[in-house]
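Appendix B, example 12.
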Amino acid sequence: MNSQQATPGRSRLSRSLPLILLALAAAAAAALLLLRPAPAPQGNLTGSSVGGPFTLTDETGRPVTSESFAGKWRLMYFGFTYCPDICPTDTAKLAAGLKLFEAKHPEQAASLQPLFLTVDPQRDTPAALAEFTNSFHPRLLGLTGTREQVDAALKAFRVYASKVPGTTADSYTYDHLAVFYLMDPDGRPVQFLAGPTATPESIADMLERFLV
C-alpha cells in the first residue's frame, strides 16, 4: 500500500469531524439556552395567556387589584428601584415614549395608566417606589406587595426574575425579563416590546397604533 494514502478509518474520521464539531456546538448552544429562560421577541400578544388577576399595593399604600385599572389601557414594566442600569434606562424610555404620545394625542393618553411593578418587594416599599417613579413621569404608578403577591403577578405575566446575591445581604440585584406590556382596557394582552431594543419612538408608535 502507498505510504501516502490515507487509511479508510482515518479518511472516515476526517470526513466526519466537521459534523461532529457541528453537533457538539449545537449541543452546547442548546445547553446554554436551557440555563435560564430567554426573553421572547417583541410582537403581538393578542389571544395569549399573559396577564391575569393580581392583588398588590400602590406607591401611596393603597391596596389595588387588576380591577382597579378596569377601563384603562395599561403600559406595564417589571423592574426594581435599586437596579443600577437596565431598569432606570427602560423606565426613562417608557416616560419619554409616553410624553411623545401625550404631546400628539393628549385625550387618548389620558385613557392610559403606566405601571411599574417591582420584582423586589423587600426593598421597594411604597415610599421607595414613589420617589423612583416621580423622577420619570408624574403619572407613572409603582406597585409592590408581599413576596407572595409579587410572585403571583410575575407568574401571571410570565416574567422571569431571579435574585442575584451581592457582597452584603442588602446589595443583591435581580436578573429579570425586561419587557414592556401593553394591556387593553379589559386587561387583555395586546403587544409587547423587548426592553433592550425598545426606544421612546417605538413605544409611542405602539401606543398610537392601538389607542388612536
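The domain at 43-211 is CATH 3.40.30.10 (Glutaredoxin). The mean pLDDT is 86.
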